[in-house]
Amino acid sequence: MTDRYEDYRPPRRRHRRRRRWSAKRWRFELTRVGVLLVLIALLVLLVQGCRAVVGLIAGDGGEDAAPSQSNAAESSGGETAGEEDAPAGTEDAAAQETEAEPQAEEVTLVMVGDVLLHTPLQDSGLRADGSYNYDHFFTHTRDLISAADLALANQEVILGGTELGLSGYPAFNGAFEVGDALVNAGFDVVCHATNHALDKGEEGLLNCLNFWQTEHPDIGVLGIHASQADQDEIYLYEENGITIALLNYTYGTNGIALPQPYEVDLLEEDRVIADLERADELADFVVVAPHWGTEYTHTPSQEQEDWAELFLAHGADLVLGTHPHVIQPVEWLEDESGNRMLVYYSLGNFINFTSDSGSGVAQRALGAMAQVTLTRGEDGEVSISDYGVVPLVAHMVEGTGNPTVYPLSDYTEELAAQNAMSEKDSAFSLAYCQELSDEVFGELWR
Ligand SMILES: [Zn+2]
């Protein structure tokens, strides 16, 4: 899987380098012309000075021709010396350029779906000494996550901390240590605009924000806010010379009214349009992460399609959807002007441990990681130069340190037989996950 990801990074550095080297060369050439003009000016002054002196001594303007030519020859010699300096200067420019090369204008981005903390998952973090640790969720995906320049996760449930009591379905509350594990895995940005954002009321939401602010101030927290000023700010992620705006909205909060209107970013048309237009001005590339759609459905709803059209009409470049808890297709949308936007309708669950059982439940064990490469082109525009998807399997095994997630390509029939999903829904198997990936993603994941 890692190889596959490495493979699809396009080798475009040479192009950019040439373009930027050329700009430096222009500067160098202009400097050289300036030096030449000064030399000519000096020469003219010198010739006039000589002419005046010769005129004074001989009173004959004809004889100044020789010294003048001689000076011209010297001057020419001086210019030759200047030419010799030129390659050295070019080498300096090239050396500086070589140092600057890591600033290649390309960003790799990944996102995973719902971190949905059912009770067996909550319990799996409790260690013998009473502390919590959830690093095991990411044991088999950490390399893929940390290899990306920018990694996002959909934190489906609020992290209100143990003081509010950990809880699973239906009103969830996660430990701060889940956030620590996200950071340890390499995530840079966490999406919190979900229908579970207010499961523990305003206190849960503010606890969560306070945890991020105090423990991991460098992590981007989207979708929930402690003030109007915070909500009004467009989140910008800058890397390798590219500025990416990231927006995150949810369709609702399970009927719980917002204590303050700014606390959760909702899919409200006026706000979304205003945000998109500002984001388009501020950034090279605009990503929207909507929490939308119909649970347990592989086909995007009319509502998802309508919102996607609105995102495209107002400048979005990439959509990374969550909430249905199952995977949905990846497709390009294009408007009449030729603007294109890539949509991952639903990444499904990253990790979950549903208590449901019966036919159809097996689909909740299969999620996906979106992988997208952004590149600044010759025209200066940033666009998607490559993209893919990695199906992921939530490996449900009870017990401390046990539940985790595997890339489907690393999964085996033996692991599938150990997965509690095998008992919940007898359809579950390695082949089931492969066939569902084929059905929803087609060739994209192979
Ligand atoms: Zn949800």
How is this structure best described in words?
- There is one protein chain.
- This protein has two domains: 13-100; 105-445, Purple Acid Phosphatase, chain A, domain 2 (4-Layer Sandwich).
- 40% of the residues lie in helices and 20% in strands.
- It is built from 13 helices and 14 strands.
- Strands 1, 2, 3, 4, 11, 12, 13 and 14 form an eight-stranded mixed beta sheet that branches. A six-stranded mixed beta sheet has the order 5-6-7-8-10-9, with helices on one face.
- A hairpin with a 5-residue loop joins strand 9 and strand 10 (340-344).
- Helix 2 (13-58) runs antiparallel to helix 3.
- The longest helix is centred in the N-terminal third of the chain and has 46 residues, at 13-58.
- The termini are close together.
- Mean pLDDT is 85; it is low at 1-26 and 52-90.
- The structure holds zinc ion.
